Automatic annotation (TrEMBL):
Comp. bias intervals (Acidic residues): 673-689
Annotated Penicillin-binding protein dimerisation domain residues: 45-273
Reaction equation(s) it catalyzes: Preferential cleavage: (Ac)2-L-Lys-D-Ala-|-D-Ala. Also transpeptidation of peptidyl-alanyl moieties that are N-acyl substituents of D-alanine
Coiled coil: none
Organism: Lederbergia graminis
Primary residence: membrane
Topology versus the membrane: Single-pass membrane protein
Pathway annotation: Cell wall biogenesis; peptidoglycan biosynthesis
EC id: 3.4.16.4
The protein, known as: serine-type D-Ala-D-Ala carboxypeptidase
Penicillin-binding protein transpeptidase domain sequence ranges: 323-646
Keywords in alphabetical order: Cell membrane, Cell shape, Cell wall biogenesis/degradation, Membrane, Peptidoglycan synthesis, Transmembrane, Transmembrane helix
Region feature Disordered, mapped onto this chain: 668-689
Domain of life: Bacteria
Amino acid sequence: MNMLFFVVFVLFSLLILRLGFVQIVNGEDAKRQIERTDDVTVSTSVPRGIIYDRNHTQVVSNEPQRAIMYTAPKKFDQKQTLETAEKLAQMIEKDTGSITHRDKVDFWLMKHPEEALAKVTEEELDSLESNEIYKLQRERVTDEELASLTDDELEVLAIYREMTSGYALDPQFIKNKDVTLEELAVVSEHLYMLPGVDTTMDWDRTYLYGDSLKTILGIVKPGLPAEKLDYYEARGYSRNDRVGVSYIEMQYEDVLRGQKEKTKNITRSGEVLEKELLQEGQRGKDLVLSMDMELQMEIDKIIEEELKASKEKPGTNLLDRAFVTVMDPHTGEILALSGKQYSLDEDTNEYTFKDFAAGNFTTAYVPGSAIKGATVLSGYMTGVIKPGSYLIDEPIVLPSTPTMSSWFNSSRKMNINDTYAIVRSSNSYMFKLAIAMGDGQYKPGQLIMDKIKSFNQMRYHFSQFGLGIRTGIDLPGEQIGYKGNIEEAVAGNALHFAIGQYDSYTTLQLAQYISTIANGGYRMEPHVVKEIREPGDGDGTLGPIVKEIQPKVLNRIDATDKEIEHVQNAMWGVFHNNSIGTGRAFDAEPYRKYRAAGKTGTAETYDQGKKVWNLTLVGYAPFENPEIAFSVVVPSAYLDGYNDTGINSLIGKRVLKAYFDLKAERANNNADSNEDDETSDNQEENNEN
């Protein structure tokens, strides 16, 4: 007993000595370790910048939304996180549509640890690494076991999935759409039992003009794109941040995103003790577009009405879309970019219109005669003709090839000049230019020419107008059109090129081409953003200008002023020569007063194995001092063998009328406003007297 007491005495003495050492020698260090806090800075997203049209009317804005948010602790606790998700599931409704098969498997294994362990043998436990064991367990979860997950459990999973989708101390939205006032109140009342959960306000993009221009404005999505994850994270984005993924929203992401709010989280043992605001957030800068939304909406309506009317005519089986680009030929500002697609809605089994404005620069079509102005100017620039030169318009007869001729002359020889060739749209004149640019010679049944030189000459000079190359528009995804293989082409294909029936071009390229002719030979860079501004004060007032997009000349074509004026006059004749002009419908009332000039186009091509005709139109107005240049493209307008629907000219005339009517209406409104102001001033002066 004495020995036992002695041993106990010694042990207690050692314990007391150890406790004394810890408390006296290491006590301060231990206390500091327990009380140690970590400072972690996190960033919170802010609303994106607002998008306005050129008249400062809001086009895209932000709509505030109630939201429930979760901030994960620095030290992850699976059990506590799951318990929080289960409590939260009883307070809110959470959509389960985003749950994947992998999510269900992982959740089932977490909820059934014993059954999960039974899915691997003891030999596998001893011989495999933990990650390999878990892989086997996932593979062995059956569909029947996954089907046992109840709707309530799936809702818990959907919440748990959001809570674990980001990094520690990185706020994640659990629900930020359709949060009811009741849900917000219940969660707010029980925050004490929901660690890491908070209620806040979020925002979403709202489009004030509905579907109009929707494809150009772009899409904003929550969550960083997987293929650009490193790129965005290196720039301070969180994984659940919204980001622009297409067109304007994507192109101007750095401008629209804004400055995040920065908060310092003070943590102890991984738990957040308090938050300190380091930097207030500022919503993104605003964009002012060059587009006129009133004009845009009117052109959208015109396209829809003309497409519907044309679809009632025979031979329009494949007609389903049309495009219009309107731009300022002197500045490159895009005033309207309209595209509509008429398609069958499989849900309602009815035909509906969808916005396809992006098709103006992402889809290309053979334009036909609309590009003959470029062909004639190419003839000038290569020196094969001069303004006023005459050539013989005659059928081109080649071996094993269908006879090629002008639409108005299938048999005889006509001596015509370049103006007549454009006004009446001579194919044969353009054929002769292509032959001359290839140092060729033609006689019935024989054609000798350097096809490669002819192609290269025309493509080089066409590119000066923006045909076949990028226009430079400030939007991603621009296409340059299809270029035929000139090595495999025959000499006759070079002749087809000269009349716009070989390479394909976008509607935007055609608008840049006619703008270059309209403004005297300068290829302007098109752009859809006019200004970048600081955020306004919230009452509709715009902030100061940060950057104004200036007109940019990309190049000047090699033609002389006299040569350009000669083609301009010919294009005037296309619209106003009542005997031979192919676009003389523009000389009728009320369109005559707009004093437009331009060129029509009809191109033979194939669609779904059937021969069809594309209809195009390019033009500008007024002739003396152009304010607008426009292009119209209607692919597969009618099947071969049916009558021309004329939809290109119908749309073009109405576009001109819409622009000038809107201009007149605004001028009258401004005059009335000035008159009211003057009357008010006079009344004040009389009152003072």
